[in-house]
Amino acid sequence: MTLSTEKKKEMFWMMLLSRRLDERAWVLHRQGKIAFHISGIGQEAAQIGAVYALTQGKDWLVPYYRDLAMLLAMGMTPTEFVISLMGKVGEPSSGARQMPSHFGLRRARVVSHSAPVATQSPHASGIALGIRMDRKDEVVLTTIGEGSTSQGEWYEAVNFAAVHSLPVIFLVENNEYAISVPQEKQMAVKSSADKACGLGLPGIQVDGTQVFEVYEAVLEAVERARKGAGATVIEAKMYRLTPHSSDDDDRSYRSREEVEAHKKKDPILLAKNQLIVEGLLTEAEYEKLEEKARAEVDESVRIATEAPYPRGEDAANPVYAEEVQHV
Ligand SMILES: Cc1ncc(C[n+]2csc(CCOP(=O)(O)OP(=O)(O)O)c2C)c(N)n1
Ligand SMILES: [Mg+2]
Question: What residue's CA is closest to ligand 1, atom 17?
């Protein structure tokens, strides 16, 4: 399906907003205002390309911790994100109980995931089985890092979806590292998409720095799934431009030259240049978007900073049906 100019610009805007918000999270961490951040910087093209292939309000997203851009596109507000970083009242994933970026957004059919990697994959296949049993034409998109495709849960989930032709897309965001472990120490295949052929379903590789290419690849898989033709594995190749998390120092396992070289393929830059070359965006319009993103980020930090922390007496709600007596 050809994307309209408006849609393309909207996708670029979501990528840009996600980037500026993510950068602010690093600043908040270094200022000592939040305890932890895990970043999606460098992965925005794959995330926005993929999520725009879904029908909002109908399809399901089972994300992983780097998917900030996806969550924003699904309707999580920047303020809700900053509130989640600060663990304040109004945090949508878990009422401020879960680690930041362990996203969930009930109103948008985004299912929250656990910290053990790959545990989201069987959830996605299970949701897809439910869709099949209810004879609905919804689809499930689930994401994972390439390192986590070594986990047993991922193989079990993909195998189950392949055997039962379930409407689920397994998107692998291959950023070349699993913390300090590079891809070649993680798997003997060139691409995690190659793993699909042993499980009997299509495995597609796409350039994860190119937002519109990812969109086309995921849309095709969504259409296949919707018409009952089954699951697909898609590997989007990109590079993690930041350390693994705010607790990681990546200088211990990769050179600065390597990181700098990958900045030339920054997905924000590539999308901006493409839109300018296609005559869909001017430098002046781009500057306006930058201003708008900064203003939105500033405002969300202001609101989240003023928001209250949860009350101690609410800690056990809604874990127990009745109020518990605190010591
Ligand atoms: C089962 C399990 N083992 C180890 C960890 C610690 N851990 C958190 S993220 C991560 C790396 C995952 O790498 P990858 O799947 O490539 O995703 P990326 O972080 O690169 O996006 C590890 C080992 C964990 N959360 N769960
Ligand atoms: Mg990785």
Answer: 145
